[in-house]
Amino acid sequence: MPKEKSSGPTRSLQTDRPKTVEEEERELLSTAQQQVRPVIKREVEGEPITKELLNLRLKKPR
Amino acid sequence: MNPKPSWDYPEQEITAQPFPVDLASLRPKPPGLIEGSWPPTQLIYLGLYLGKLGCKTIVVEAHYVDRDYIHDHALFYARSLRDYSNACERWHYFSDAITAEQWSQRFQNASEKTRAEYEQQLQQSYLGFTVMRPLPGSPVGRTVLRTYGSPTDSGDTHLFPTVRDYPVHLAGMKLIVPGLAFQQQDQGVSACATTALWSALQNVARLEELHVPTPAEITQAASRYLLSSSVGRALPSEGLTIQQLCEATRAAGLHPLVLPSTSVEDDRAQILGYISSGFAPVLTIRPELGDEAHAVCGVGIKLGTVPPQTDLNLRFQDGAAALRTVYIHDDRLGPYAAAHVAPWTLAKGNRIATGLTIDWPDLAVPAELSLLLATIVPLPEKLRMPLRRVRDLGLALAQRTGKLLAPYGVKVILHCRFRTAVDYGRAAFGFGLTDEGLYKLVCKTVLSRYIGVIELSSNNGRLYDLLLDATETRANPSALAFVRHPKFPAACLPNLGAIAKTFGTILVA
Questions:
Q1: What ipTM is given for this predicted complex?
Q2: pLDDT tens for each residue of B352-394
Q3: C-alpha–C-alpha distance, residues A22 and B247, integer Å
Q4: Among B273, B333, B280, which residue's Cα sits nearest to residue B303?
Q5: Which residue from B minimizes the CA distance to A39?
Q6: Which pTM does this prediction carry?
Q7: How far from each other are the two terminal CA atoms of chain A, in whole angstroms?
Q8: Other C-beta atoms within 10 Å of B249: how many?
Q9: Domains of chain B
Q10: Closest-CA distance of chain A to residue B332, Å
Q11: d(Cα B476, Cα B257) in Å, to the nearest integer?
Q12: Each residue of B136-167: pLDDT tens digit?
């Protein structure tokens, strides 16, 4: 059987090997993180802790 | 002529009487012009609340030395011209009808056996107590009452995770009341912020075995280095700033976490998460029609059903969206007042803020809408990881799990909170783990004192938990264990094991 052309045995092994469940889950978790990023951004984009807030006096309003 | 000095000991009398329709009728109206109204709203509120709990009898203890009031007295009232007593009355509430004769007969021909029987009988119907201070305008002192039962008439769930047990000694008997202490501000030693923080510290200080500071100690600690910018002096108290609240929290041995209001979703998640964890937050609010800010203490929550996800890109439901109402100690009203949470569009800037609508008991006063400004949570020193970081990780995990379990028709619901390792370990015996799994979790896994818990569940029950080391500052590299519950599909266990490996931790099944 004639030898197939390849760039090298090591590279061929890396590309052909099926992904392990762990590798797949790592990728899928990474995708999930990207998908929820807008939610995180929306939730935490708000007022910073300002001096005005810290010096706000709390007393009975009525 | 001045009265002769008296060295007599005070007299005690403990009597039972039917719970009156008007609780304020037990308290004489003070002479002179009263600032505000009489009876105080707090007394009206207490009467209405106890009526809802089914109170039928009030036992009045005529002489009671209250630790919180006597500190206020020593710091402030002892140096007044008026001769304020250093003792209070204490009112005990029972759901059983007990006449004055029945009460006194219990102490006749008594024995240790009859005492134990009577103690048990009283315990079953005990609803709590109020310390009535000898202050004309602000009589309602330390008050600990039972909470509402659960579920509600509408099918919603009440939860009060911040309550603790208070031992009570009455006429030779020891009773226990679960609740969280409330008191009215006296405007001498304490303002609303003082009493809100005092309530917030009650449970977390017990968890950390710390001394719970009295209102007098809170006011002193708050103004030791920081003076109020508007009035300068600390006493009479004209209110505290948020910075002073933080200072008083630090003086109590705890760490204040200040969370400015960001969005309704985040505010719901933070308030629900911290209250579910047993940490009562101070909520700073501003009435929509007012300029002054106010402080209340978040004590409990009312949860409805978890609404469906509205974002089409997300594959899970947010458990925090089920938060309908926060039960608050509002010192203008009383304990466990309902504050309904809803988005509120501000006229200025077209921004959506978090609105809290507080129901007042008397119909003459309409429900008050306030806007949430910030949440301050007194936390133990070793709880460094903020809930927001736990939630950020929880969102990603819920999204991945939602996709993983979609083929099985399982809808994933996300909840985040903190628990103590001790509580979690005890609860683990009821998780339905395998023998190996339980042994691995409770005998072979080291947990931090407080753990961040990402709980993923479905409508049928819990799926799995991720436990995070709360002494860490970043959620991601601090996974301690994944704990699988029986409702998680067995077919997906290899995936869960792989997710656990990705987090560098173990899977307990």
A1: 0.81
A2: 889 999 987 665 666 788 999 999 999 999 999 999 999 999 9
A3: 47
A4: B273
A5: B395
A6: 0.92
A7: 93
A8: 27
A9: 14-29+36-186 (no CATH), 264-379 (3.90.70), 387-508 (no CATH)
A10: 7
A11: 21
A12: 888 999 999 999 877 677 778 899 999 999 99
